[in-house]
Amino acid sequence: MISKTTDALRILIIGLGSMGRRRLRLLSRSFPDLFLAAVDSRADRREVVARDFGCPVFEGFEEALEKFAPQALIVSTPPEAHAPFVTEALRRGIHTFTELDLVEDGYDEILPFEESGSPVVFLSSTMLFRGENRWIADNHGRAGERKFYNYHVGQYLPDWHPWERYDQFFVGSTRTNAVRELLCIELPWLIKSFGGVTEHSCLWSHTSSLTLPYPDTCHLLLRHSDGTTGALTVDCVSRRAVRELRIDGEDGMIVWKGGAESLHFLAPSGEEIVPRQGERELERMEGYAEFISETPYLEELRSFFSMIAGERTERLYSYAEHLRILRLADEIEKEWRKQ
């Protein structure tokens, strides 16, 4: 058994791809009292992490459970592999933090643990921890009681992970495709802001020459329960990474281009408010789009640890809510999946 002289929480990160290394870096920098270990089946990843972070690294999950005895697990594997690790950890009383889910595998077993509250079950939804998104959720009424939005999110798929082929990680699969991932990233915060989707229609297209088993572009029209209508375009074609939102109403306009200082409220009088200007963010991770801030990734980890410590019981997002998002994504994908 690996031991440490302090009572530090033992955290095991499984999966040492880009997200696993991001979590490990944030944890080692911002929570120096934690005792960290990692798991990955790939020797090259284990070697890099052992060298750069100096923590125990294991080839197999069972070996790590036996020798490291973690109190919390961070699951950063590809989405289709989440469920076995999460469910096994929960059965053993280990708190779990899981990256964004794209499939509902294991939910029948996970949901009762979430309802019981013990151990802590935490599902990542990073956009809900962004300051700009929280401001929009709280202040979109400034644009008017009735309003509509246009929102475009996209990036050329080979640029997502430039260090590996786009068809050799999970977005190459129809089940966990790139457009579905973008929908599952954006829909939770849009629904938190404007309410559930009561109507939707969409158009799918193949816009690029990428060799993909699914369409690369989705134009989606939505009506939310608060009456707001929206046009959402998600794609993996745009050669320049884009996140551009405009909310229009009789009382003003909200414009956001993905970064804190790009968020503006424009009043009919000509007054311009930049509510997030000058706020300090963590440095960005090399290889990611310029509007991908590290801060919300850190904030959701803080929220997870607060729940473990019993300092907060109310969760910002849940598996139960995400199950509804996954089933909405299934509905949206029905058109091209019939082909």
Quick recap of the structure?
The protein is α/β, with parallel strands linked by helices and 339 residues long. It has helices spanning 18-30, 43-53, 61-68, 82-91, 107-116, 131-139, 178-194, 295-308, 319-337, and strands spanning 10-14, 35-39, 57-58, 72-75, 95-98, 121-123, 147-154, 197-205, 217-224, 229-235, 242-249, 252-256, 264-266, 272-273.
Q: Overview of this structure, please?
A:
By secondary structure, the chain is of the alpha/beta class. It folds into 2 domains: 10-125, NAD(P)-binding Rossmann-like Domain (Rossmann fold), CATH 3.40.50.720; 127-292 and 319-337, Dihydrodipicolinate Reductase, domain 2. It has 9 helices and 14 strands. It has helices at 18-30, 43-53, 61-68, 82-91, 107-116, 131-139, 178-194, 295-308, 319-337; strands at 10-14, 35-39, 57-58, 72-75, 95-98, 121-123, 147-154, 197-205, 217-224, 229-235, 242-249, 252-256, 264-266, 272-273. The strands form 2 sheets. Strands 8-9-10-7-11-12-13-14 form an 8-stranded mixed β-sheet. A 6-stranded parallel β-sheet has the order 3-2-1-4-5-6, sandwiched between helices. β11 and β12 form a beta hairpin. α4 packs across α5 (107-116), α6 (131-139) packs across α7 and α7 crosses α9 (319-337). The model is unreliable at 1-6 (pLDDT under 50).
